[in-house]
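Q: I'm building a small set of examples for a reading group on sequence design. Run inverse folding on the following structure and report the sequence directly after it, with nothing in between.
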């Protein structure tokens, strides 16, 4: 690929040389020329000429945007380079050739603030100009016209020096993070000599969603899950217990993962499997020996190197299950995949296969797509943490401007301490998808903070902060199914290892896997003094009393609500069970115990409202550290019995407010027999606040791993029925209409639905006019 200089083509090396080592400081004069030549180097089209009608300016320099203020004033800004649905690029130009000194931004923007100038000659400092440019780009993204989606990429360019990439594939535009990670989000001008870097940037220009890690790993995850399912079914067919099979396969997956991330010799496990293909009788002996050394650490003859001590509970007393040659081959084929970016949803798939259909139905076990999880996690956890980070970052910047470098380092360290003390709870955690996404997003933020710490204090400051790290012990779960608990713990440790290696230069400390019981096999709603023993109710003569249905009535003299682990944030996807189904879907007597432990909630309310009510109560308790909670529920949350639960918290003396509501959101094919339901998402905080109401205006590719959903937004006070405006759910009947009108006969429930064969039996198609009454 070649750039141009006049009519002469520029090679990549010439382009780099042409723009490197310039004094800079002429951003407005230089950036459009630089980016035009940059497009030639990438081999992508030049921006279009801008039109007076801004509606057509989808790929242009100086794209005008306008943001409406609360007092009806508006602020106008211009995006340096914009491509609709792809990126916003903000260009700056440092005056100092190799340092971070920056000229004040002369362009009017939505920030109404200038980057200012760093101290001359100070190299180890915050790049003020790039930080301000990133924040400016975020504001521009929020100010785009309503029919323009949030672009997946923000780019910040220091002309002739560096380009920084930030991505948010959620479509919400509020949570742009360094892409692909803190180590590689900065592309120096000289890096353009690398074809891989050019291919990456070309994809940002032409097909940005192809870079979405979730899409990249989804196909591999599905293929590997299929291979593992074959092995799982074969082992269970030979009478191995489902739980033993699931744990065996989890150990195999983890071993392949640590091999690919470099914590085990590259191809060490793969070569071991090759030897076992030649002689399948060796398989259990070889695997047992490997896992014994992974548990204890030390030299492993099978791998041919000293192993880290992984420990934890995963490899304690681990034993392999015997496989046939064909099954070993399936495992060997799976080991060829790149496990560095392992999608933990694969463990949910594994767990799902181990559940029979009746147990899955009883537990309401449907797995939330990652895009939906991120919407909840970002709004509940990452938004407030980013606000915290901006405050610490600003304090560090002020310290640097005053020449107090040590104080600036201390501010960054203090935020790392804050981040590494945050506690997250999912009180219905399943296999840990919400906890994993929360950990991943917090580790991404940690990477951004470490990069800033390195800019100020270098390697020494980062080394001193080695212990200040987001770890799995900060993430708490409650789950009834023991197999899911084991998977959730492993998912957290895999996520931790993935992102530790992307943000740190050192290997994780030993033992690599901890054994803290931060995910508990525990009922989140009910505790009994004598659980699991059920007590028969007896009359005064000591005879059992029975009801008409079960012939047993259970009494729970000591039933109560259990304590939840203390947390700063609560997120989750409680079971989807309607109020009318609670008694039938849960074990005998559970419904009565649930109602007794929660007398404030109408028995007709959906199961999820017990989680919503408890989280709202914790949010307003005296001395609480809980800041926000967010749940995925069915969209029936807007119906009468659910609304009453929400309203009592919104209108309480110490009120709760809904910060984000999506009242009607599509579900996807999370499992092959998943319920065809619509969901709602609610995020709440204590106090009186306005919120964002998002309503779906288009939805596509719902049967894919990354559905495409576009929202329209409104801001205001959100009511209990998840609307903004007049509280129509609080309207009462007029006394003047009493006994004057009646809505007539209205058919309710499924009792009036007949099968086609029954309709024919009743005369449909034979009796004239019956089609007016028996309809599809």
């Amino acid at each position: 690929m070649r750039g141009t200089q006049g009519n002469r083509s520029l090679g990549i090396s010439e382009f780099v040389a042409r723009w490197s080592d310039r004094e800079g400081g002429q951003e407005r004069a230089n950036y459009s020329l630089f980016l035009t030549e940059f497009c030639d180097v990438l081999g992508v089209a030049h921006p279009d000429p801008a039109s007076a009608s801004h509606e057509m300016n989808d790929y242009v320099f100086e794209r005008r945007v306008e943001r409406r203020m609360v007092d009806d004033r508006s602020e106008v800004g211009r995006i340096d380079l914009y491509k609709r649905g792809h990126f916003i690029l903000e260009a700056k130009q440092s005056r100092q050739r190799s340092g971070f000194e920056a000229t004040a931004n002369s362009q009017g923007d939505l920030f109404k603030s200038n980057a200012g100038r760093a101290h001359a000659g100070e190299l180890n400092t915050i790049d003020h100009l790039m930080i301000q440019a990133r924040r400016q780009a975020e504001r521009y993204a929020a100010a785009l016209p309503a029919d323009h989606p949030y672009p997946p990429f923000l780019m910040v360019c220091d002309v002739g020096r560096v380009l920084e990439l930030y991505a948010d594939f959620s479509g919400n535009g509020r949570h742009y993070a360094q892409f692909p990670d803190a180590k590689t989000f900065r592309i120096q001008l000289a890096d353009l000599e690398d074809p891989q870097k050019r291919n990456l940037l070309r994809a940002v220009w032409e097909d940005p969603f192809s870079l979405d890690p979730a899409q990249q790993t989804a196909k591999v995850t599905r293929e590997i899950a299929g291979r593992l399912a074959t092995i799982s079914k074969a082992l269970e067919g030979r009478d191995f217990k489902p739980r033993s099979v699931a744990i065996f396969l989890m150990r195999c997956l983890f071993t392949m993962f640590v091999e690919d991330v470099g914590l085990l010799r590259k191809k060490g496990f793969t070569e071991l499997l090759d030897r076992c293909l030649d002689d399948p009788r060796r398989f259990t002996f070889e695997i047992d020996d490997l896992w014994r050394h992974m548990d204890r650490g030390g030299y492993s003859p099978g791998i041919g190197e000293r192993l880290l001590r992984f420990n934890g509970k995963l490899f304690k007393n681990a034993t392999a299950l015997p496989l046939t040659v064909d099954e070993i081959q399936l495992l060997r084929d799976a080991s060829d995949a790149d496990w560095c970016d392992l999608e933990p949803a694969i463990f949910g798939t594994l767990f799902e296969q181990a559940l029979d259909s009746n147990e899955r139905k009883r537990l309401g076990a449907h797995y939330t797509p990652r895009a939906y999880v991120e919407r909840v996690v970002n709004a509940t956890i990452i938004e407030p943490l980013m606000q915290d980070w901006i405050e610490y970052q600003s304090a560090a910047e002020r310290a640097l401007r005053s020449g107090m470098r040590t104080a600036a380092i201390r501010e960054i360290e203090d935020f790392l301490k804050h981040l590494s003390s945050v506690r997250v709870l999912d009180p219905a955690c399943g296999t840990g998808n919400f906890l994993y996404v929360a950990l991943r997003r917090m580790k991404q933020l940690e990477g951004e903070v470490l990069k800033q710490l390195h800019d100020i204090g270098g390697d020494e400051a980062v080394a001193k902060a080695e212990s200040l790290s987001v770890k799995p012990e900060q993430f708490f779960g409650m789950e009834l199914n023991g197999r899911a608990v084991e998977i959730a713990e492993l998912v957290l440790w895999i996520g931790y290892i993935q992102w530790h290696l992307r943000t740190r230069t050192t290997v994780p400390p030993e033992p690599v896997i901890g054994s803290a019981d931060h995910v508990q096999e525990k009922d989140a709603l009910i505790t009994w003094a004598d659980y699991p023993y059920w007590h028969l109710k007896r009359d005064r003569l000591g005879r059992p009393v029975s009801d008409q249905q079960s012939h047993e009535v259970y009494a729970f003299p000591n039933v109560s609500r259990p304590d939840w682990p203390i947390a700063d944030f609560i997120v989750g996807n409680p079971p989807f069970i309607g109020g009318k189904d609670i008694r039938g879907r849960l074990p005998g007597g559970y419904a009565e115990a649930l109602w007794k432990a929660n007398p404030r909630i109408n028995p007709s309310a959906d199961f999820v409202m017990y989680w919503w009510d408890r989280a709202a109560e914790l949010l307003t308790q005296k001395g609480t550290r809980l800041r926000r909670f967010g749940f995925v529920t069915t969209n029936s949350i807007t119906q009468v019995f659910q609304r009453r639960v929400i309203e009592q918290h919104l209108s309480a003396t110490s009120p709760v407010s809904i910060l984000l509501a999506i009242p009607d959101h599509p579900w996807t094919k999370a499992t092959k027999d998943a319920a065809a339901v619509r969901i709602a998402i609610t995020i709440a905080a204590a106090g009186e606040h306005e919120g964002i109401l998002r309503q779906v205006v288009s939805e596509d590719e719902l049967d894919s791993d990354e559905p495409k959903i576009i929202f329209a937004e409104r801001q205001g006070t959100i009511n209990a029925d998840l609307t903004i405006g007049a509280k129509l759910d609080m309207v009462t009947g007029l006394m003047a209409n009493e006994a004057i009108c009646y809505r007539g006969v209205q058919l309710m429930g499924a009792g009036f639905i007949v099968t086609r064969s029954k309709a024919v039996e009743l005369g449909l198609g034979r009796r004239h006019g019956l089609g007016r009454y028996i309809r599809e």
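Residues 96-124, 359-367, 530-535, 538-551 have pLDDT under 50 and may be disordered.
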